[in-house]
Amino acid sequence: MRVVSMVPSWTETLLRAGVEVVGRTRFCIHPPKMITNIPIVGGTKDVSWELVADLKPDLVLLDEEENPLDMAENCPVPYLATHVSSLETLQKELVRLGEHFESPLLMEWAVDALDVLEAPTAAWDFQKIPGFMEWVKTPSQKEYENVVYLIWKKPWMTVSQQTYIGSVLQKLGAKMVEFPIDEKYPVIDIEDYEKSFLLFSSEPYPFQKKINDLKALNVEGAIVNGESYSWFGIRSLEFMRDTLFPKS
């Protein structure tokens, strides 16, 4: 089956599972050696249907959190739209994709996702932050009121418990700020969170490249690998599996 994937997380996952991906977004950068010769047809929010048609796909793969509704409404070929908003929905969608593509590997990863779901919640340790990349300022205490995960600047934007990243953080034992249920990506005033520990994601905003600006804020926090927390396919699954079930 020839697939055009408009979801970076799924592109990597399908390629590693042996599914034939013939088109991708410009944000589909993993696995590097496997995506090189796959044509780009747009981004996660825009697409050239002419380029898609040239590839003669059997299916376009979308996700409700990644792609806008009009992409599905205007899709000229059959499409499949997943909806990954938590670790639980990841497990269900891996089963769905495994059945659709008749892929033993996808089904195996669905079992791994179930193991992650059923594992005890981890104990969060500010000295051993999962996905740690670099300190903005080292923690001065063992406990904080909560953890705030930043994904954007100007305005400062965080994530709620109702997001995939939120479900990962909670499974890892982080205490999150509670926002209204309809605010998945709240805009905040960073000065309001002096008693919180701040996690700055390496993407989509390039916080690691702005580390000196962050240090000038005099906040306690760290840069973490955004791909590990947000790429909800095999990349995040392996991150969770390795964190919850470390090898001796």
From TrEMBL:
Chloroplast among keywords: no
Protein name as catalogued: Helical backbone metal receptor
The entry's keywords: Receptor
InterPro entries the record matches: ABC_Transporter_SBP, Vit_B12_bind_prot
Protein source organism: Bdellovibrio reynosensis
